[in-house]
Write a structure and sequence with these properties.
The protein has 222 residues and is of the alpha/beta class. The chain has nine helices and eight strands. The mean pLDDT is 91.
Length: 222
């Protein structure tokens, strides 16, 4: 395995980025950052403070004041905002429905991208999100874009939500994902798309371990 490498993994919601990224980071013995949790932290904070998602100035100001920290605990990380653990709260359906609207705001993105680049500058890392290869780390040695059908991603997210709450509607989950895809792919600032030079991997017929092994094979060439 390479001694030092930056791996950027992008893809739509529920395409397996986070789980795959954690496996790859563990095998490469480097740090891992899921940038999506940072946008979720902003969305959750907005919900808690009753800030309207259309109030861009307030959201940007709030984002600059949040101290977002990832605390590694083996295969699991805790997300702290201003010292408070919000790891579970950011998985709430309300956050799911809000996060893409928050991520559309250029000022919020600028603040979080700046933080993400500072984190990456500290050494080898696997970073996952929706604009890592295109915007955050365009010079990453290895850039991956994970693809998966809407139906498969909805099934994955449905199972995940059912483990927390049995009262989940599959049709609503798929509808929310489809709406989020629409927002992410069509926003004017950093839309979701494969970056130049990225390797596309369709995960529909692959399990998580197989996807991770493909990425590790590619990483071994650096």
């Amino acid at each position: 395995m390479p001694e030092s490498i930056t791996v950027a993994i992008d893809g739509p919601s529920a395409s397996g980025k986070t789980t795959v990224g954690k496996i790859v980071a563990r095998e490469l013995k480097c740090r891992f950052l899921d940038t999506g949790v940072m946008y979720r932290a902003v969305a959750l904070s907005a919900i808690r403070k009753n800030i309207e998602l259309t109030d861009k100035d307030s959201l940007i100001t709030m984002a600059t004041l949040l101290k977002i920290e990832l605390v590694s605990q083996g295969f699991n990380d805790k997300l702290l905002v201003n010292g408070i653990d919000i790891t579970e709260e950011i998985k709430d359906e309300k956050v799911d429905r809000s996060v893409s609207k928050v991520a559309m705001i250029s000022g919020v993105r600028r603040e979080l991208v700046s933080q993400q680049r500072r984190i990456a500058a500290d050494g080898p890392i696997v970073m996952v999100g929706r604009d890592i290869g295109t915007v955050v780390l365009p010079e990453a040695e290895l850039k991956i874009y994970l693809e998966a059908s809407l139906e498969l991603r909805a099934a994955r997210r449905f199972r995940e939500l059912c483990r927390k709450d049995g009262n989940v509607d599959h049709a609503r989950v798929q509808e929310d994902l489809e709406q989020r895809d629409e927002i992410d792919r069509n926003r004017s600032d950093s839309p979701l798309k494969p970056s130049p030079g990225s390797v596309l991997i369709d995960t529909d017929s692959l399990d998580i371990q197989s996807v991770a092994e493909q990425i590790l094979l590619l990483a071994s060439r650096y």
